[in-house]
Amino acid sequence: MSNVTTNPSTSAALTVLRGINKDLNVVQQQVSSGYRIQTASDDPTYWSMATTMRSDQSSLSTITDALGLGASKVDTASTAMDTVVGLLTQIQSKLVSAKESGTDKTAINSDIQQLKNQLQSVTQSASFSGENWLYNTEQQPSTQQSVISNFTRGTSGQISFTTISYDSSQTLMVDTVKPERGLLTKNVDASTFDTSSSGSSTARNYYLLSATGGTTPTDGTEIALSSSTTDAELTDMINVTNSLLKSATSADSTLGLMKSNIDAQSDYISKLSDAIKSSVGDLVDTNMEEASARQSALQTAQQMGVQALSIANSMASKVLIILQAK
């Protein structure tokens, strides 16, 4: 029944149109922002999960930076250790060549001193971000180095961190405060090696370097040649240098292993961060294909609703014309 005062058809059409406009506004917001769930009111559960995962992703980004810094420190130390191993190998070769009869030991010693000066320079310059794992001038050096490598979130939300650790005392080559802490500055007892050719009864402690401006080891002899160096002493020097070379090579290998671990962890963190980002997207991002199709459908429904409202409104005008005709 048509009614001039109250038009039920108009009210119904207007209600439907309001619902269509509301849904259309939601879809348009999702398309423009790219988020299906943007605030907690959209879906508290998914929003909370996505927020926590974004926090984890941010933490992973920080860990990536820490791994990068740690990798740079290890690279610096490893590069210096490679050079140290190479120089020790050359020094050992020079000492071996001095065993040959008729060689000029004084001339060979000049070459050895040049190599030792290079060792001083290399170890001193192996510094990154204020840390030098090869050269120490502190009374109490820090020997335990660590890099944050990952974190885990427990079932109750608690966070714990994991680290990659390294005992840098292995790579400490020169110590200016306590020579016994540095591989190249400490005394090494030559009598512990197979030195059957040596019949010396004197103290047979040798060290390779006397740190510039540092303390010299007591009761030890620096590895150096002179015209009076005996064959037994030379044998002791070769054995000590060989021992130093083995220790330096082992320390260098450990650094290489740590670098490999950091690279592998960096790759894992990168993949994990990408996976979390993708998971967050699955939770809250707008499906553009679906939203676009829904937007087109709602726009069509909106047009139809406007037309329906127009038709409903025209009914009252037609009734009024009929009444005027009577």
UniProtKB/TrEMBL annotation:
<dbReference type="InterPro" id="IPR046358">
    <property type="entry name" value="Flagellin_C"/>
</dbReference>
<keyword id="KW-0975">Bacterial flagellum</keyword>
<comment type="similarity">
    <text>Belongs to the bacterial flagellin family.</text>
</comment>
<keyword id="KW-0964">Secreted</keyword>
<keyword id="KW-0969">Cilium</keyword>
<protein>
    <recommendedName>
        <fullName>Flagellin</fullName>
    </recommendedName>
</protein>
<dbReference type="Pfam" id="PF00669">
    <property type="entry name" value="Flagellin_N"/>
</dbReference>
<dbReference type="GO" id="GO:0005198">
    <property type="term" value="F:structural molecule activity"/>
</dbReference>
<dbReference type="InterPro" id="IPR001492">
    <property type="entry name" value="Flagellin"/>
</dbReference>
<dbReference type="GO" id="GO:0005576">
    <property type="term" value="C:extracellular region"/>
</dbReference>
<feature type="domain" description="Flagellin C-terminal">
    <location>
        <begin position="240"/>
        <end position="320"/>
    </location>
</feature>
<keyword id="KW-0282">Flagellum</keyword>
<keyword id="KW-0966">Cell projection</keyword>
<comment type="function">
    <text>Flagellin is the subunit protein which polymerizes to form the filaments of bacterial flagella.</text>
</comment>
<dbReference type="InterPro" id="IPR001029">
    <property type="entry name" value="Flagellin_N"/>
</dbReference>
<dbReference type="Pfam" id="PF00700">
    <property type="entry name" value="Flagellin_C"/>
</dbReference>
<feature type="domain" description="Flagellin N-terminal">
    <location>
        <begin position="4"/>
        <end position="137"/>
    </location>
</feature>
<dbReference type="GO" id="GO:0009288">
    <property type="term" value="C:bacterial-type flagellum"/>
</dbReference>
